[in-house]
């Protein structure tokens, strides 16, 4: 069970909004913007690759040589 009860970020979209780019309703909490930015960055990095492939690429590039 989650530590807090909260609305999923997508529920803060305006009627014409598109996940994860928005626009979001006025007064949307900070976690909505942070989550949207994480998703947008992941989608840009992933392209057509799988989540595992993206994670492996990030992990391998962070390892010391």
Question: How is this structure best described in words?
Answer:
With 65 residues, this protein is an alpha+beta fold. The chain has one domain (9-62). The protein contains two helices and two strands. A two-stranded antiparallel sheet has the order 1-2. A hairpin with a 3-residue loop joins strand 1 and strand 2 (22-24). It is globular and about 35 Å long. The relative contact order is 0.12.
List the helices and strands and how they pair.
Layout: E1 13-18, E2 22-24, H1 30-46, H2 51-62
Antiparallel strand pairs: 1-2
Explain briefly what this protein structure is:
The protein has two helices and two strands, in the order E-E-H-H.
- The largest sheet has its strands arranged as 1-2
Beta-strand percentage range: 5-15%
Instruction: From the alpha carbons, calculate the radius of gyration and give it in angstroms.
Output: 15 Å
Mean pLDDT: 83
Output the structural class.
alpha+beta
- This entry's quaternary arrangement is single chain
Structurally, how many domains make up the residues? 1
Unreliable segments (pLDDT under 50, ≥5 consecutive)?
none
**Envelope shape:** globular
* Tally of helical segments: 2
Biggest sheet statistics: 2 strands, antiparallel
Distance between the termini: 40 Å
Total strand segments = 2
Helical residue percent band: 40-55%
What string, H for helix and E for strand, traces the elements in order? EEHH
